[in-house]
Design brief:
alpha/beta, Rossmann fold, Arc Repressor Mutant, subunit A, elongated, 3 domains, 369 residues, 18 helices
Length: 369
């Protein structure tokens, strides 16, 4: 059952103690026999456990009650909740990880956190093809009964959330800041749409700003909630590789979508595959590894293959581009066409969504999987 009023206040107060941290907080509560007892005798217990003097002093002086009142006001809103470690609604998958969060602030559907989830993550500066792939995987895997979980970031994360929503399915976004704000701000409307049918989740109290050190902590929750992590695009130093590493350490499945050997955003995925991640080309690859059946309507839900353009020059351009980015100069040489004929055809293909412009005056084909 949910915490009592006094128990909720005790939890919120303890969560506000700077320097206590997840492991120390859970240890303190376990030793005391509950959050209320831990708060009442916190200074003595912290001192006995050898915790830093600043933590002992904060507990002795009673942490910031004004902040606790703001937290209570946040939780009084519809569809807002605090799920504590001793709450039976705490996600079972998350209990298994090495440093589980003591509590989760949730805006939206709490019960969704206990559902079978798959995390989809990747580059913030994703290619159009990468974002389309993320949306397709999210839609298809949602149709198979998995809840798609990600981090609300720009690029692959946002595309994954949108793919699930466009399929009429809920999705979970784990945030590296308090849920009274949206980060990045460009995803404000997306966050509101997620909260309507899915859930926004954070271990950070309201008012907490996004900080660089928060995102590795967020990533362990993303992987911890899920049965596995699918990386769609990732550069060698991508934060999504941290999520994949945490997933492996937590005993979760790790999946990666391969890409062009010429693309920097594919190198992180290729490194994961070399290290043992399952190479994924279709949603069936993920479902097979997780021993889940494919939905009967999956084939019908697949987007139709792009039609060959009626214009002969446009058709030749698509054939010349193939599967890798090609510069305009290369197209001029290989097709033996003057720029004044080539550029209008490229523009028409781009407007039709058949190709996308890239850096260095290049073009790539945008394919439905």
């Amino acid at each position: 059952m949910a915490a009592t009023s006094a128990g909720l206040r005790a939890w919120l107060t303890l969560l506000r103690v700077s320097g206590l941290g997840p492991a120390r907080l859970l240890g303190l509560i376990e030793t005391a026999g509950g959050a209320e007892a831990a708060l009442a005798d916190g200074a003595r217990l912290a001192r006995a456990q050898g915790l830093p003097g600043a933590v002992v002093d904060t507990l002795a002086a009673a942490p910031d009650q004004a902040a606790v009142e703001r937290d209570l006001a946040f939780l009084a809103q519809p569809d807002c909740a605090l799920i504590t470690w001793d709450d039976p609604r705490y996600p079972p998958q998350l209990r298994e990880i090495q440093l589980p969060p003591p509590a989760l602030f949730v805006r939206g559907c709490v019960e969704l956190l206990g559902a079978a989830q798959l995390a989809i993550v990747g580059s913030r500066s994703a290619t159009p093809q990468g974002k389309q792939d993320a949306r397709c995987f999210a839609a298809e895997l949602s149709a198979a009964g998995l809840v798609i979980t990600s981090g609300l970031a720009l690029g692959i994360d946002g595309a994954a959330h949108r793919g699930a929503l466009e399929a009429g399915r809920p999705t979970v976004a784990v945030c590296g800041n308090g849920l009274d704000r949206v980060y990045p701000a460009r995803h404000r409307e997306l966050a509101h749409a997620i909260a309507e049918t899915g859930a926004l989740v954070s271990e950070f109290p309201p008012g907490t700003p996004p900080k660089a050190e928060h995102f590795p902590r967020r990533n362990r929750i993303i992987s911890g909630l899920a049965l596995g992590v699918l990386v769609v695009e990732a550069a060698p130093a991508s934060g999504s590789l941290i999520t994949a590493r945490l997933a492996a350490e937590q005993g979760r499945e790790v999946f990666a979508v391969p890409g062009s050997i010429h693309s920097p955003r594919a190198r992180g995925c290729h490194a994961l595959i070399r290290d043992g991640a399952k190479l994924v080309e279709t949603s069936a690859d993920v479902l097979e590894e997780l021993r889940l059946p494919a939905p009967a309507a999956a084939a019908a839900a697949q987007p139709p293959a792009a039609a060959t353009p009626a214009d002969p020059l446009q058709a030749r351009i698509l054939e010349a581009i193939g599967d890798a980015a090609v510069s305009v100069d290369t197209l001029i040489q290989s097709l033996d066409e003057p720029p004044q004929r080539l550029h209008p055809a490229l523009l028409a293909l781009e407007l039709d969504g058949a190709i996308v412009a890239g850096p260095g005056d290049t073009y790539s084909r945008l394919r439905s999987r």
